[in-house]
Amino acid sequence: MRNDSATASAVLALTGGPANITQVTHCLTRLRLTLADPGAVDEESLRSLPGVLGVIGAGTPSLQVVLGPGVVDTVTAEVERRLAAGGTAEEGKGRATEGKGTGIPASEPRPKGAAPAVLRRVANVFVPLIPALIGCGIIAGVNGLLTNAGWLPGLTPALAAIASGFMALISVFVGYQTAKEFGGTPVLGGAVAAVIVYPGVAKVTAFGLHLSPGQGGVLGALAAALLATRIEKWCRGRLPGALDVLLTPTVTVLVAGLATLYGLMYAAGAVATAIGTGANWLLTTTGAFAGLLLGGLFLPLVMLGLHQALIPIHTTLIEQQGYTVLLPLLAMAGAGQVGGALAVYVRLRHDTTLRTTIRSALPAGLLGVGEPLIYGVSLPLGRPFLTACVGGAAGGGFVGFFAMLGQKVGATAIGPSGWALFPLLTGDRGPVPAMAVYAGGLLTAYAVGFAATYAFGFPRGTDPRPRDARRSPSLPLA
């Protein structure tokens, strides 16, 4: 039985105790810890903990513990609770804890520089919103099926209201999260972003153009809240305490609000329109090629953490069109990796350690959680990572080809992929044809990923004998 409390306690102990952790966040699958002393981490024992699917960034201040969807939420909450309470004596010692897990090795190449750091912070704005996007997206999908079938006509308006309410106000949530992430007062970020969705903006005219409520969407909200945060910090550094309480929030909302109305909404609206137009053009005219490119390159983006830059684009497309056409294409990368892992499993039939890793990570891979297979199987072996990308490209090309024929496949929310994405699928011809095309893409990616890895994923003449080293793959890259 799963014991998230014990997992949280063990993670704290093996990362140097509560005093060594300066920040705790999480995404859909990873617990992210910022450490004061990276050397205090007992990496080997941390990897072997039950429920831990992998460890990324060991030896750096930014440690990531792969736990998988669902589990990461409760473990993170428990870690935060224990940090707030000061932890326990055992956790403070930071000693090793015995246990058996999947033993998946992992090391993530992390790009250096300001741009990747900014992308990660922008992703932190949107990741907390994903559960609501998923829930509302599934409800919207169910409502669409009921509406098309003519069933429960008395219930469908209520479902439509529930599914659409969050999306109607998503700009406010983005503004709140942006200010929180970048060091401002969250409610001030939300207040400025709320200007974007206020119906009264239709009466505002600038440069001879009228605004419309929601113009600029989440991109405008992100920019508005960033500006508000800068203004707030500027004010707080210059105003005395008595005036700070009154003037800082007033100046922040006024200046950032005017800038939003008379500049940011127009600019962000133009960018959002360009994103939607560009995505539609890309799939309509070059769908197969675009699918090949996106499906083939997504695994390297995930490996480097640069896939986070796509989150605002997905959200913009969902807000603008009701679904994102990019996510089903990108999901093919994970399917190619599943096919590649199966080929490794078959080819290296005497390597019991690697086969155990694949058996442990494969269910998560089928549901779209790719980190265990990336860092535990394909990336350490080298060539299977490249051949998995070939499988992803084939699946993306399949889905993109049907988009050229007029059958777009979109996802009403971001987060899940693999087979977990089916409840969120829709398209310009309804959810059922979209599901059929998506299933065909998955099968294509599985098959090509398997075949490419089996045929080209290993050096010529490789003898699939047991490896002496359990954690260091003996297969060269070339």
Walk me through the structure.
By secondary structure, the chain is mainly alpha-helical. It folds into 3 domains: 4-101, Gyrase A, domain 2, CATH 3.30.1360.60; 124-280, no CATH class; 296-456, no CATH class. Helix content is 62%, strand content 6%. The protein is built from 17 helices and 8 strands. The protein has helices at residues 4-14, 43-47, 71-85, 89-93, 114-126, 130-149, 156-168, 170-181, 186-197, 217-236, 241-304, 311-321, 326-347, 352-366, 371-381, 383-404, 431-456; strands at 21-26, 30-35, 54-56, 62-66, 205-206, 209-210, 410-411, 425-426. A hairpin with a 5-residue loop joins strand 3 and strand 4 (62-66). The chain is globular and about 70 Å long.
Q: Give me the Rg, rounded.
A: 24 Å
Biggest β-sheet: strands ordered side by side in the sheet: 1-2-4-3
Shape by Cα distribution: globular
Taken as a percent bin, the fraction of beta residues is 5-15%
Topology as a string of helices (H) and strands (E): HEEHEEHHHHHHHEEHHHHHHHEEH
Distance between the termini: 43 Å
Total number of β-strand segments?
A: 8
Low-confidence stretches: 89-108, 465-478
Structure classification: mainly alpha
Total domain modules = 3
Helix content: 55-70%
The protein's oligomeric status is: single chain
Average pLDDT level: 86
